[in-house]
């Protein structure tokens, strides 16, 4: 039997101000707060389990590393407007679907995205510059 990774179990982000970060993910992005303790929190959005862990500092990355959150197409315009008004943007959208690239309070690079892997691969097939495997 082949053993393989089945998907993402959870994501943990270091944060410097737990209350501020919980409010950002819960109140701005709509995550559901599931647990809270002095140095951390668990939040949930669909199948995503997000852990916020208090740290003394957070190192900002200067590359393209980021987390993309799935958003339903009808919900995207209102959520993107709300997030744009509250968070700093770090990149313009260049993807095949609607996307908004923004920073959380600790500078973690995030994205709201409408689309699937299949829609991304279809765009790559049409563009002809990327080798796509079925």
TrEMBL record:
Residues 7-115 form the VOC domain. One of its GO terms (molecular function) is lactoylglutathione lyase activity. Pfam families: Glyoxalase. It comes from the Bacteria. Keywords: Metal-binding, Transferase. InterPro entries: Glyas_Bleomycin-R_OHBP_Dase, Glyas_Fos-R_dOase_dom, Glyoxalase_1_CS, GlyoxalaseI/FosfomycinResist, VOC_core. This is Glutathione transferase. It comes from Pacificitalea manganoxidans.
């Amino acid at each position: 039997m082949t053993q393989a990774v089945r998907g993402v179990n959870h994501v943990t982000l270091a944060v410097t101000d737990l209350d501020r970060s919980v409010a950002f993910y819960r109140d701005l992005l709509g995550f559901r707060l599931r647990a809270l303790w002095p140095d951390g929190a668990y939040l949930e959005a669909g199948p995503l389990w997000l852990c916020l862990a208090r740290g003394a500092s957070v190192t900002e990355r200067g590359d393209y590393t980021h987390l993309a959150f799935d958003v339903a197409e009808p919900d995207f315009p209102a959520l993107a407007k709300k997030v744009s008004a509250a968070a700093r943007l770090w990149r313009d959208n260049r993807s095949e679907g609607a996307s908004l690239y923004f920073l959380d309070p600790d500078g973690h690079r995030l994205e709201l995205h409408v689309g699937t892997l299949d829609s991304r691969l279809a765009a790559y097939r049409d563009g002809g510059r990327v080798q796509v495997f079925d």
